[in-house]
Amino acid sequence: MNGVTENAPKLRFPEFSGRWVEEQLGDYFTFKNGVNADKSAYGSGRKFINVLDIIADGPITYEKIIGSVELTDSEFEKNEVIYGDILFQRSSETREEVGQSNVYLDRERSATFGGFVIRGRAQKAIHPEFFDCLLRTSAVRSDMTARSGGSTRYNVGQESLSQVKIVVPSSATEQQKIAAFLGAVDEKIGQLTRKKALLEDYKKGCMQQLFTQKLRFKDDQGNDFPDWEEKRLKEMFSERSERGNEDAELLSVTLSRGIVRASEVERANGASADRSNYKTVHVNDIAYNSMRMWQGASGVSGYFGIVSPAYTVIAPKPDQVPAFWGYYFKLTGVIQEFQRHSQGLTSDTWNLKYPALSTIRLAVPHPDEQQKIADFLSAIDAKISLVADELRAAQNFKKGLLQQMFV
Fold it and tell me: What is the CATH superfamily name and number for domain 173-221+365-407?
């Protein structure tokens, strides 16, 4: 690949030269809004593409589509989605999401599409995979979102889509080569995505086997560990009530990542200016969201810091292995116990403070077996983290290519 002149991409295959052509999306596609059927029509019938299919990873194919709708043959014919069609998100609560697109790449079977979706059908020969990539570039996305209208909810219409500016190579061969190259990158991303999902499923299976005692470790001498004993959680933990370290680092408890620095969480900072009543968290403490413990909102802290008074902080007794409990508290059956012991009438008001938590009975292994289990699951987590890093690198590589291989 080589650098080229104005109105051509920065990164280009060497056999191509010359300027790309500036046109409008309407020069290549005709647009149509989707089906608005009666509520009773949904749930069976023809495969039905909605917004969730558009924002999913990878191109849309028949097997991936979850939704369905009952349509007559004539309605289906008017609203059919075939190979090479581009589907656009027509409406969103945020301007940045309006007009997101995905391509339908199933040659064998067709589908239909919903009212919150706009179908783009090529009116001249194109390479669908090339346009799928082109429509994800920052220049096209910026133009598209700028044309959206609305205040509390943003929309883009057929006329607006048709006016979106695009810059394309005049050579169909160049389109095809770019699409093939980026397709190879997508395949790598897909492989890493599948590998990460398999490791996560393997971890879930291992946790289920380990915590139901169907899979047991031996001690270092090859002997069986003692049977697990049922104990109340107050025998393993005490509540930490320490406060007043208002200059300490602010921490947050997340569903997916456990305890993280609040600065790493992509959400509005709702912390109070007065943090004198915030709770102190020591390394290896477990902090949990009292209102979301039944969803698994807990984690073992790797930091010294403070959390909102809305959180509960518990300190493991010296003989307990914090990492073991971090995993145990994520187990489906244990989360269900947290739910049963939560105070409140509805899921919006359920609350699990320490006095109720402390009475919960769980089967508990010997601390040495706790350590074995924690080490095993931590090793799987390390592999998942490594694959996740590779996946992010591949995704960032593709983002860079999209900016350099397109105008």
Answer: Bipartite methylase S protein (1.10.287.1120)
